[in-house]
Amino acid sequence: MFHLALKMLIGDKAKFLMLLGGLFFAALLMTQQCAVFIGLLGWTTSHLSNIRSKLWVVEARVEQVNELKPLRDTDVSRVRSVAGVAWAVPLYASVLQARLNDGNFKPILCIGLDSTSLVGRPATILKGRIEDIRLPNSVIIDDLALERLKPPDGESLDVGDSFEINDREARIVAICKSDRAFFGYPYVFTTYDQALQFAPRQRKMLSAVLAEPAPGMTAEATAARINASVPGMKAWTEDELYWATIVWYFKNTGIPFSFGTTIILGFIVGVAISGQTFYSFVLENLKNLGALKAMGASDLKLAGMLLLQVMSVGLLGYGLGMGAAASFGAVAAKKGQPPFMLPWELMGAVLVLILLICMGAALLAILKVRRLEAAVVFRG
Amino acid sequence: MPVPMPMKNSQLPSLNAGELAVHVTGITKAFGKGNASTLALKGADFEAQLGELQLIIGPSGCGKTTLLSVIAGTLVPDAGDVRVLGEMLTELGKGEVTDFRRRFIGFIFQQFNLIPTLNLTENASVPLLLNGAGRRKAEKAADEMLERVGLAGRGKHYPRQLSGGQQQRVAIARALVHDPRLIICDEPTSALDRETGHQVMELLQGVARQADRSVIVVTHDPRVYEFADRIAAMEDGRVLGNRPAAEALPEMAAHH
After folding, report:
1. What radius of gyration do chain A's Cα atoms show?
2. Which end of chain B has less neighbouring CB within 10 Å, N or C?
3. Is residue B66 part of a domain?
4. Is A14's Cβ below 8 Å from some Cβ in B?
5. Which residue range(s) make up the domain with B89?
6. Which domain holds residue A15?
7. How many other β-carbons are positioned within 10 Å of the β-carbon of residue A319?
8. DSSP readout, A2-68?
9. B146 part of a folded domain
10. pLDDT in tens, B122-176
11. Residues on chain B touching A373 (C-beta within 8 angstroms)
């Protein structure tokens, strides 16, 4: 009987397509907006994913990873002196202006790494050698910089090319892959000492101290020891700083509200279109459903048929919506923007929402059919 | 016109021609509440025998369709007893009545009520599927029944491709496919021309001739009276008389 239920629905092409379209649109809108939102939040924590340190020790009033307040160089030694710290190295991270060969200026994210250990170095080198970063005036740029720092009519930058940072030559010795930052500035890695040469002089220049827990110590326990021993600084585990950054953007920007509104709209549109369409499909088929009821179809059987109909379209719409969202993501990944991240948790959550929409639509229809008298078929 | 062949039905205790297929006593049924209430049946009594084609006639609004709905178990009466094929429907629960209807009653509706998005085979197979038959078996039986009502080879067609008479024949195939003992027909010829109506009534008459079947037809189409074995006349919510057609027809002809 259930195959006939599906045929009854698919046979009504206009209603079927409208229902499918509504659920497809709802799935696409919710998935695409959530994925862009998650991707955007990922961009806000790009320092963490690009530098990868178990412990970040920063100025005590720092709330998130993108607003590091300067410390004294001697603060590195204060962290090193804490029992439970295996090692600690300085990090410079700041937005600087790069002057290109055509005289144009472009903002960059300059990351200065400890020259001995190169802790925080890029994970993937696409071209060149990481060790060459120790050469004077050397920098490693990321793949985004190839585009961003390219002169308007010129060729893309390459290893051996140079530009200026604060009137100093910055020679490209390697090209790396990095996660994109929230503001879209390219990453330029150099040594800590070289970064201090590039940056305008200030009394305090150290951005953060990257530290490693001693063997046998957890990151949390080491952070607690640092916090207890080093006043004026705060140690975060990578995970804590990640979530503090996410929460900061939630609280201090309108981004979640903006995306949230669109996501809710997607849900409402899905509910409205699919609920209304399926209900009108049931209303138009009341006579047929009444005939089935007269012929002995139980309320349970009819409810099962209605659920099957709407759930099938729901799953189809979900699949198509997810496919369209994934295609969007593939294009975004190729172009590098907009941000897009489609974790399985999001796919699962959207599936639940789509099934909720379907169940809502089916519930209305089932109540209608339950109240339907089989005798209605005998009334003209 | 081919006549449907009897199919085996072992679901009910054996009842023979001449025994009562339907025995209804003192049925009342009101619609609406308070001042807006309308009494559709006012203590109606009715009987139909196995092996006969029973007509229920009467003017519009006299309660024919309400009585038919009560017999079919699609409407619960306010008072009275309804015994169908030996089962007291008024003593059964809603689910049991639905189950009884699904197994033992076939329906033919005035507007055919074929599902437009299903082909003829699928339409005719619905009662078997509702009774738990497998898809292949149900469709094979449906095709055989379509053949018996003169629609061989048309199983893949859709209702919109058929004339009214052909659609009603599909409805008959659907009503008979699960071998029901009682066929309930609501104005089966009112949407058909005279010739087609005659063909449909011949089909129903063929079914009613089987000893363990009964066909009840509600109609106000005088063209079909000649096919009846018995005719019950209703007026104002009551059955005034239920006589053999051989007695009733001459009197009705004289009256007209």
Report:
1. 29
2. C
3. yes
4. no
5. 20-114+181-255
6. 2-43+254-378
7. 15
8. HHHHHHHHHHSHHHHHHHHHHHHHHHHHHHHHHHHHHHHHHHHTHHHHHH--SEEEEETT--STTSP
9. no
10. 999 999 998 888 889 999 999 998 888 888 888 899 999 988 888 888 988 898 8
11. 74-75
